[in-house]
Design brief:
Elements lengths: L1 H5 L3 E7 L3 H6 L3 H7 L3 H10 L3 E8 L6 H13 L4 E6 L7 H8 L29 H15 L2 H14 L2 H14 L7 H13 L4
Parallel strand pairs: 1-2, 2-3
Length: about 200
Amino acid sequence: KLMSDSGCRLVLVGFESENPEGLKYLDKRRNYKYVWDKYRAVLKKFHAYNIGIAGGFMCGMDNDNLESFRERKDFILENPFDGFAFTFCTPLPKTALFNKMECENRLLYNNFPHDWKKFNLGNITFKPSNYTPEVFFKAYLKEAREIHSINVFVRKFFRTFMNTNIRTAVATYVFLRHQHIFINNSFFLRFIENIYRKIHRLN
């Protein structure tokens, strides 16, 4: 309630994977043990206070296979996330995953500090265990094109509007607009952006 009263309209939650093994791989056992079976109730509660949830999901963990990308995409589309981030698993510095990749000589970029700019969740930064980086990227791109389609964009927008209100829906739009890298400008996007500008009194 305090978040809603403060004007919060969207929160990003790192769900990472629908697979419990993926959560264990990322050392997020607590997420699975205490939250995962209750996530629908969590989403519903946030919606009751007109706050949207963007789910953060990653691809490329060692226990992923190429079919995992499709399953993760389907999970995002079938559930009431208002927004989402569908990114590459990235070993960030000072983490156990980074140390593991460094010890196993699997980092694709190690000219630091110059190469830190590659570690932005949008680049493949290590050698996957079950496929080549090229196969990984091709499989990811196939699912990413569908999940970032204009049809998904519109469906998510109106679902958020029905679950919350117009302010939350347009706030979610701002997040999604930057995530949907495969869609071109359209009348619908311009229409929503105009609403956003009017609500926030932007020029």
